[in-house]
Specification:
264 residues; 19 strands; mainly beta
């Protein structure tokens, strides 16, 4: 089996733990566990899989997996895409610092903890950061502003604080930026409303204050969710949108007349 390159399990009938012998798959390229009822630790031997490019563990219901992600996973020098969803791992968030080819970094509804790794700013090919429904703390790293190939940036429903760095106004390819469900404060950097690809901006349920930047009036965006913050002053609308949620803030004044222009 040392010549095996692709390993897929697409069934909820698989149970037990991942055997340590997985480390013997010297030519493995892709590992996928989909809806598998796994438990226990990921074996440290996974760090021996130097040819592994894609590692996926996906569920759509909470799993009983309660082990930790071993530090050896950071040795996967060929890994370029990692998705872990609905498996309750504990321990520190991986950084994959040995790999410069990383393009996708996704951990959804896990119990891993720590801060957003500054090391991700070294991955100049990174296209996707998805870390939501977790217990990630600390602040949004300003260093991520150099990730000009980033298209998806979602860190929703964690324990993040601090402000939105102005450096994020350089994320010229980002189309989804979702920071909802945290403790982020400060104001919205006005330069975000010049990002040419941004179609979804979700910062609801934070502590963001100030007024909506006037730059939004010339900006087109499909979804803008500001619900549950501390915005005040006059309401400002984008030039085009399909969904606006401004509820539970402290706005005053009147509804702008350009509401009638929010059409196709």
């Amino acid at each position: 089996m040392e010549s095996l390159q692709y390993l897929y399990f697409r069934t909820d009938k698989i149970s037990g733990s991942i055997p340590s012998e997985i480390g013997k798959l010297k030519k493995i390229n892709t590992i996928l566990f989909y809806e598998a009822n796994l438990n226990g630790d990921i074996p440290s031997e996974i760090g021996l899989l130097v040819t592994l490019e894609r590692f996926y563990m996906l569920r759509y219901h909470d799993a009983e997996f309660s082990g930790a992600i071993p530090s050896e996973i950071n040795n996967l020098a060929s890994l370029n895409d990692c998705i872990v969803q609905k498996y309750n791992f504990s321990g520190e968030i991986p950084t994959f610092t040995t790999n410069s080819n990383f393009i996708g970094y996704t951990f959804i509804a896990t119990q891993i903890q720590g801060t957003l790794p500054i090391e991700l700013s070294l991955y100049d090919r990174l296209e996707k950061i998805e870390l939501y429904e977790g217990i990630i703390s600390g602040t949004l790293p300003s260093q991520y502003g150099v990730l000009t190939k980033l298209t998806i940036f979602i860190v929703s429903r964690n324990k993040l604080s601090g402000t939105i760095p102005s450096e994020y106004c350089s994320l010229i390819r980002v189309n989804r930026m979702n920071f909802d469900g945290n403790n982020i404060s400060g104001t919205i950097p006005s330069g975000l409303f010049y990002l040419p690809k941004l179609i979804s901006f979700n910062i609801r349920e934070n502590k963001i204050s100030g007024t909506i930047p006037k730059e939004i009036e010339n900006f087109q965006i499909l979804t803008l969710r500001l619900k549950g913050n501390q915005f005040s002053g006059d309401i400002a609308f984008p030039a085009f949108s399909q969904e606006l949620d401004y509820s539970r803030n402290k706005f005053s004044g009147t509804i702008p007349s350009n509401i009638g222009l929010l059409t196709d």
